[in-house]
Amino acid sequence: MTTTTDRFVPALVPGEVILDQVVAARAPWSAVVAAGDVLTIVDIAGNQAVDCLLYSAADTRVRYSAPETIARQGRIALTSGSVLRADTGAALMTVLADEVGVHDTLGGACSKESNTLRYGQHTRFQHGCLENFLIEGARYGLGARDLASNINWFMNVPVDPDGALGIVDGLSGRGKRLALRADVDTLVLISNCPQINNPCNAFDPTPVRMIVTRP
């Protein structure tokens, strides 16, 4: 489903449209993207963070590894050309194109527990990305032990000289896109981040659009 506000934004890599859906603010989403197909993620309103986990659809024990991905590419941030690797070293997806330029691999996923620790007990009722991952992952038989360090698309997490991480306003804007090619059949889990306590999504979660094309 698309809306009138983002219908004009095409997939970043053209091709036959296999899937075109809008993910509501704060909501989870998932799909298996077939090898060779391309997933375009559209930041509809701008400055929204999109948490993401990747698994081999053939064997979900093979999953995205932040350490393996960072070590192989020799840099922390993700952008065009980044290969998203499993803990085995196998390529799951590759960033073909990117209109933002910097995406986070370190910030992790918010949760009821982390919200409480960082922002106080009054935030404990707020569900986070961890809860979204558990809800959506359950559809594929995945549980808490199957979660790993995640990617935060569109999120800006600078590393200070002393090694501390910051969470600041994103670099994305209205309609900005990135495109991911599946190198194997890949299960993609998304949490359209519900965080309202820090500026990762301008304190105002907004929808994103997921388009799968077959070049």
Your description of this structure?
- The structure is a single chain.
- The chain is mostly beta strands and 215 residues long.
- It has one domain.
- The protein is 12% helix and 31% strand.
- It is built from 3 helices and 11 strands.
- The strands form 2 sheets. A 6-stranded antiparallel sheet has the order 1-11-3-9-7-6.
- The two termini are 21 Å apart.
- The N terminus is likely disordered.
- This is Urea carboxylase.
- InterPro entries: DUF1989, UAAP2.
- It holds the Pfam family DUF1989.
Please give the share of residues in helix: 10-25%
Q: Please work out how many helical segments DSSP would assign.
A: 3
Rg, please?
16 Å
Largest sheet: 6 strands, antiparallel
Biggest sheet strand line-up: 1-11-3-9-7-6
Give the amount of beta strand, in percent: 25-35%
What's the overall geometry? Answer: globular
Organism: Mycolicibacterium doricum
InterPro entries: DUF1989, UAAP2
Pfam families: DUF1989
Protein name: Urea carboxylase
Descriptive keywords:
215 residues; mainly beta; six-stranded antiparallel β-sheet; five-stranded antiparallel β-sheet; 3 helices; 31% strand; disordered N terminus; DUF1989; Urea carboxylase; UAAP2
What layout of secondary structure does this protein have?
Layout: E1 16-23, E2 28-33, E3 38-43, E4 50-56, E5 59-63, H1 66-73, E6 83-85, E7 91-98, H2 112-119, H3 129-137, E8 151-153, E9 176-182, E10 186-192, E11 208-214
Antiparallel strand pairs: 1-11, 2-10, 3-9, 3-11, 4-5, 4-8, 4-10, 6-7, 7-9
